Amino acid sequence: SAVISQKPSRDICQRGTSLTIQCQVDSQVTMMFWYRQQPGQSLTLIATANQGSEATYESGFVIDKFPISRPNLTFSTLTVSNMSPEDSSIYLCSALGLASYNEQFFGPGTRLTVL
Amino acid sequence: TQLLEQSPQFLSIQEGENLTVYCNSSSVFSSLQWYRQEPGEGPVLLVTVVTGGEVKKLKRLTFQFGDARKDSSLHITAAQPGDTGLYLCAGETGGFKTIFGAGTRLFVKA
Description:
heterodimer, A: 4-stranded antiparallel sheet, 50% strand, B: mainly beta, 6-stranded mixed sheet, 5-stranded antiparallel sheet, 0% helix
């Protein structure tokens, strides 16, 4: 298994500003992902963070709004740009385990509130 | 578009009762995971099922994968307040992609 930490754990931001969320894994992993989750609801995949290349975004998510970095095999950042109240959500990063199946290990999440 | 339907969406039961959560799809999955998430934390992996008809037990939790690998169930026996949380099923669709069910919010009253 992998232990994943995220910073910040929560933040309250003003409309129009940007926030960068950091995700640190305690071991090298091949795949890292970023999700968005409304409290008590399911997860929506934003993008796959690729090491050494541009992230792969899901439908409805674009790089200008959610730029992602993955400088090495243990670290990734997600920036939420030009925020609006609609961006208020929980943002989770995850990493794929070493098993053959899509077993993911998740960070504790970042709760973002945009005023 | 692949969908993974999860039911019920919400369940409130008394301690000691049994319950079953269902995940259904028209798609075939190469594997399926069950996660539990508590408030303020990320989802935690409970189990992976791979083979059609497979049954796995984790203490009071029993997981079953359908014969055609399109559906799965989670049965909890004698639920306890510590079982309270959001239960998510997730199906592997290939290419490291996973789709998540809508989740079942379980509340077990003491």
